[in-house]
Design goal:
The complex is a heterodimer of chains A (about 160) and B (about 220). Chain A is about 85% helix and about 0% strand. By secondary structure, chain A is an all-alpha fold. Chain A has a domain of about 100 residues. Chain A starts with a helix and ends with a helix. Chain B has two domains: about 55 residues, no CATH class; about 160 residues, no CATH class. With about 220 residues, chain B is mainly alpha-helical. Chain B is globular. The chains are: A mainly alpha (about 160), B mainly alpha (about 220). The interface between A and B is large, with 78 and 81 residues.
Chain lengths: ~160, ~220
């Protein structure tokens, strides 16, 4: 995080030294873009925090533990819809494994969590358009299934 | 109710839902302050606050960098290294760019759109997004700690060909002339730059064409 701010500050200073007017245009451009997505971002984050609060770790443990098709499909479903930060998702996955969750279930959960974002779709569509956003998420879902199946086969 | 009223209400909800949701969580949280037994509101508020902190710590520099990128980097550079004719040699660059960053996927969207608008092939934009979602180095260290290196290694190695294939499929499935919409007000970002107080800044047209931009840079 800090390195990102430092890189940005250095880039801004270099740009400022090179051309003040262009730097001004660049900053305005970035800010305008940022301000433009803030309402959508706040809405999506509010929705994500509501879902994250409603779906507790205990609930996920109950659904995702054990082997078979049902935990696998629920892992894909939960992973696709939710947006769980890594610092919650990985400890949760480790806990799930202790409770007997299989490799494909864990892989499906982690992969779909990272690649598919149903809750963030409105935000993604604002940048890429609905067509590209829906297509990307649809394909990413298929990709998550492929990765999970591949991992089941490799880590038998 | 007549049809126009319905349409108006629909439009208001379509535009206002992010604020309704945000206000909803804020109200739940505020209600939990005097009512300690209302854990849901407290938790939801805390979750939202942590998301907001994350967003505030990553997004502003990200957008500033995208702004600098759009103004300074010539279109021909991106077209040459990551454009439609760049072939597979763009892939390592896209992956390198993605793995050095951190944060949730929505942080990568403005960067991806900046690349796309500079002439980066859609395939490479989606390779960047795929790499960002599947193999960020900060996240990998976390994953190894909790799930072990065997899991992490297998997942990463299997993911690479999958997200490259998906990105190629994306490019094939999207129409050739597909352009992402502007990500701020309907007038677009370039228009906003022009309204900066009579300064001779590039017009939207010259900003988007490589020729115009280069002549402006000189």
């Amino acid at each position: 995080m800090i390195s990102l701010w430092i890189i940005t500050a250095v880039a801004l200073l270099v740009s400022l030294a090179a051309d003040r007017r262009k730097t001004r245009a660049a900053v305005l451009k970035g800010l305008k873009m940022f301000v433009g997505v803030i309402p959508m971002l706040l809405g999506v984050l509010a929705a994500v925090s509501l879902v994250l609060t409603a779906v507790t770790s205990q609930m996920l443990e109950r659904i995702l533990s054990g082997a078979g098709l049902f935990p696998f499909l629920s892992a894909l479903g939960v992973g696709s819809i939710a947006l769980i930060p890594g610092f919650i998702a990985y400890p949760l996955a480790a806990l799930l494994r202790q409770n007997g969750a299989t490799v494909p279930v864990l892989a499906a959960f982690i992969t779909s969590l990272m690649m598919v974002g149903v809750l963030t779709l409105p935000l993604e569509a604002r940048y890429f358009g609905w067509r590209a956003a829906l297509l990307r998420n649809g394909l990413a879902f298929c990709g998550a299934v492929i990765v999970a199946v591949g991992m089941a086969w490799v880590l038998r | 109710m007549s049809a126009p009223v319905v349409r108006k209400v629909g439009k208001a909800v379509g535009k206002g839902w992010p604020w309704f949701l945000f206000a909803g969580v804020a109200i739940l949280w505020a209600y939990s302050l005097p009512h300690a037994d209302f854990a849901f509101g407290k938790k939801a508020g805390e979750n939202l606050a942590s998301f907001l902190v994350e967003m505030a710590s990553v997004l502003p520099p990200m957008f500033l960098l995208v702004g600098l990128f759009e103004i300074w980097v010539p279109r021909r550079v991106i077209e040459r290294y990551a454009g439609l004719r760049s072939g597979m040699r763009a892939v390592p660059w896209m992956i390198l760019l993605a793995t050095l960053q951190a944060g949730p996927l929505y942080v990568a969207f403005p960067v991806a759109i900046g690349l796309w608008r500079k002439g980066c092939a859609p395939r490479n934009v989606f390779i960047y997004l795929g790499a960002f979602s599947a193999m960020k180095i900060p996240m990998l260290t976390f994953e190894v700690a909790f799930l072990g290196w065997r899991f992490s290694l297998a997942r990463t190695l299997i993911s690479i060909p999958v997200f490259i294939a998906l990105a190629v499929a994306m490019e094939k499935l999207l129409p050739n002339d597909y352009r992402p919409p502007y990500s701020d007000s309907p007038d677009g970002i370039a228009a906003a730059v022009v309204q900066t107080g009579g300064m001779p800044l590039p017009s939207p047209k010259t900003l988007n064409s490589s020729k115009g931009q280069n002549s402006h840079a000189e």
